[in-house]
Design brief:
98 residues; elongated; mainly alpha; 4 helices
């Protein structure tokens, strides 16, 4: 029964929106935001696969779905870390730093 929910894009969108909203309470960019964004991307991939627009089957079994989510989460985490590193490098130095 749980495996049926993994292939419905609406549940991934709901989970993604909840996780992105939870990021507002945390603000660390480590767990909730990458997982929420990867859930939203996962919903898009599943939707494209089910409508046939993708042209191939990426997620055939339930574990393919979760492995894809983990890979997307790792890539988004790395991307967010690189972006935040460059953003911090561009900020002016604080006058109170000795």
């Amino acid at each position: 029964m749980l495996t049926e929910f993994l292939f419905i894009p609406h549940y991934w969108v709901i989970a993604g929106l909840i996780l992105v909203a939870l990021e507002l309470t945390d603000g660390s960019l480590i767990f909730f935001l990458p997982l929420g964004l990867s859930s939203l991307l996962q919903a898009g991939i599943i939707y494209l696969q089910q409508t046939g627009m993708l042209g191939m089957i990426i997620y055939e079994d339930w574990w393919d779905n979760l492995i894809g989510l983990a890979i997307l989460m790792i890539l988004i985490t790395i991307l967010l870390r690189v972006i935040s590193h460059y953003r911090r490098a561009d900020e002016p130095k604080d006058i109170n730093d000795y």
